Amino acid sequence: MMRILLLxxxxxxxxxxxxxxxxxxGLLHLSSGDLLRAYVREGTELGRQAKxxxxxxxxxxxxxxxxxxxxxMSRGDAAAGYVLDGFPRTVAQAEALDRRLAExxxxxxxxxxxxxxxxxxxxxxxxxxxxxxxxxxYQVDTMPPAKPGICDRCGSExxxxxxxxxxxxxxxxxxxDAQTAPLLDYYxxxxxxxxxxxxxGVENVMHEISRILESAxxxxxEPDT
Length: 225
Fold this sequence. Notes:
Strand order of the largest sheet: 2-3-1-4-7
Number of helices: 9
Radius of gyration: 17 Å
């Protein structure tokens, strides 16, 4: 079993790497962003409360996000291991997560931070398209769909999220720097933090993360299948 946390600013590649980890290591991908967007689409009470924060590029309040993630992590399909993407985003959330894991007799095996400069983030997100049906992500320059504007997986029309407008992106990055970046110091203090250059290409980043996970679980070896 492996329990992994991916850190990094919006557009750093966390979702892409989490999807690859799911395929390579058999880990459940728990994305707070995907779950929140699903709640908004479904019109749940949590979704209605979270919607104005998400559309404004602000962090969803801790109480809401912790309630959602704790419930999702308690389900049976998370017992074999998971990769957290987008949660925790603040030190308070990290402390709440540690308390929750301690109650379950668990802890995170590794925290991987993807480092990407602001200019590259703006380029990536301003050209990013998302499938509203299956959550597949594309980038018009580096990972375009086979047919412009259409999802390769399910054939739905791709959209640009409201929180990926350039001005909202800048606000999201400012929020990350102010509230989420301190997580690096928090996890560095636990000895579980690993930092990876997020600009070296998807495959190279995946190689580095796999090397980290092999080390965290006791040495080189093939991923569990």
